[in-house]
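Office hours follow-up: a student asked to see two folded examples consecutively, so here they are.
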Amino acid sequence: MKTRYSKNLMYYNQLDSKIDRIYHDYLSVSGFSLTTMWILYSAYTSERTPTQSEICETWRCSPQTINSALKVLEKKEIVQLNFAAGNRKNKYIHLTDRGMELCEQLVEPLIQAENRAFSVLTVEEQENLIALFQKYSDALDNEIQLHRKGTNYDTEAN
């Protein structure tokens, strides 16, 4: 039986996809992926040096995805990775001079554009948007987790 799909939900998903496309299009000329940009974004804006695990948690990416992106950034001498004290798995992500220059060219204009775009909303609208998005994303995560626990997928059909 086909589940009814609301027009509001469809429109929301289209808008969410549009935002992803805006970021993708912005990055297309740079040659960097969205994951790499979020790593640079975090390293550039963080008040303290972020670790790999913090990046994974913040941006909800798998350790493998973050590790692959970091290898690319490290090879291009954009970041330097240093082990966290007493932990041979978790590394701190430091921007190199080259990385800082890249962030000033790539991340800084993006942050400025985001700030200008966000400022078209009142403070109350910003807070409502965040609260509603948090409420929806938490509920969706919960529903997906419940579905996964109760479903054995037929791998033959995939």
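And the second, which I mentioned at the end of office hours:
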Amino acid sequence: MAGHFIENDIFRRETVFSPAQADPLGRVLPEATALAFQDIATEHYETLGLGRAVSDARGCFWALARSDTEYLAPVPAGTPLYLDTCTGKQAHGLFWRHYRIMTPEGTELVRSVGTWLLMDVVTRSMVLDCGWITEKGGHSLPGQLPATLRRPLVPEELPRRTERTVTDAEADINGHLNNTLYLRWCRDLLEEEFSSSHRLRRLWIEYKKELPLGVRAVLTFALENGTLFVRGYHDDKEAFSARCEYDPI
């Protein structure tokens, strides 16, 4: 179903997550909610006249730099839900965007804020000349997470180590690991026993360097007191860091 505007410049889409997007306990996976946020952001930008054709013409693309997500309650599969977004503040080439998932009765299940920027297609560097962006943002969702530059608190040295290659199925149209699939990479580090007895409560992730198709990334990680810490590296440079906090169920 196509999205539409409701009050206060909030863009809404009605959605239903499929059972294929859920874990064995029927909880919609974090990468599925992140993908829904990515999709509605794309649709919203298209509606505002700032979509892919416009950025392509200027030799750039939208990239996610950071996200902070709070999971207030499990998201059920097979149930009609509301997916909302709005553009927040803008500063120094950074664009904050807020999201939420709600039931039709008004119960908030997930709230999130993402920090976006424009990347040059050729140089893969941040685009600072964004004067052509006509949407000035500054909108808000009730109870939204703060739009800050706070970095996730992740230890510099993590004891465990593994490697993983970016596959064809994981790369997006920009030729790198889709930002939603970093969440799957983090989730795959957990033992099944832990996953089945805990639920994700909060997730911070920072994207520092893209992981192109075919590269083999090194992941260092630790699970301490219900919190999973992850740092990913490529060519000895940090690509991302994540902090995933879980509660027992």
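Two things to take away from it. The chain has four helices and eleven strands. The chain has two domains: 1-147, 151-249.
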